[in-house]
Amino acid sequence: MRAILQRVTRGSVTVDGSITGQIDLGLVVLLGITHDDTNAQADLLADKTAKIRIFDNDAGKMNCSVIDVGGGVLVVSQFTLYANPKGGRRPDFMSAARPEVAEPLVRRYVESLRTSGVQRVETGVFRAMMHVEIHNDGPVTITLDTATL
């Protein structure tokens, strides 16, 4: 399971002209699922996402979590995080989990964020063509992968 965390001043997802999720200060998380990911990994990744200290404290040091700053998290499923560009000019996506495996794990990750203490969790729409607006703050972008946590 992979997550790209982007610290934002605001972010939103639009599907078919309608906003399906939006936050102000917080994290936009691009989330990819692979074949052997589990509920336990979704819980671990959500806990790490909720508690990683990448927001500034009063002294300007990155020492606060999204929970500490009262921020939101916008989760966007993104199978392309498991793209393999090795074979040529068109990447394959064979390492991405099939939708029937991935969707429940995305939902589990979202619920785990809520139980970890994140007050506002918004999402995109699984398998939809989404337009994602990200106002990166810093910029601060962190990659988390359960293979290395």
List the helices and strands and how they pair.
Elements: E1 2-15, E2 18-23, E3 26-32, H1 39-51, E4 55-56, E5 62-64, E6 72-77, H2 99-115, E7 120-123, E8 131-145
Parallel strand pairs: 3-6, 6-7
Antiparallel strand pairs: 1-2, 1-3, 1-8, 4-5
Task: Summarize the structure in words.
This protein is of the alpha/beta class. It has two helices and eight strands. The strands form two sheets. Strands 1, 2, 3, 6, 7 and 8 form a six-stranded mixed sheet that branches. β6, α2 and β7 (120-123) form a beta-alpha-beta unit. α1 packs across α2 (99-115). The protein starts with a strand and ends with a strand.
Rg: 15 Å
How many strands, which pairing sense, and closed or not: the largest β-sheet? 6 strands, mixed
Order of helices and strands: EEEHEEEHEE
Distance between the termini: 10 Å
User: Which of globular, elongated, flat, extended, rod-shaped describes the shape?
Assistant: globular
Question: How helix-rich are the residues, as a percent range?
Answer: 10-25%
Q: Structural class of the helices, strands and pairings?
A: alpha/beta
Number of helices: 2
Mean pLDDT: 97
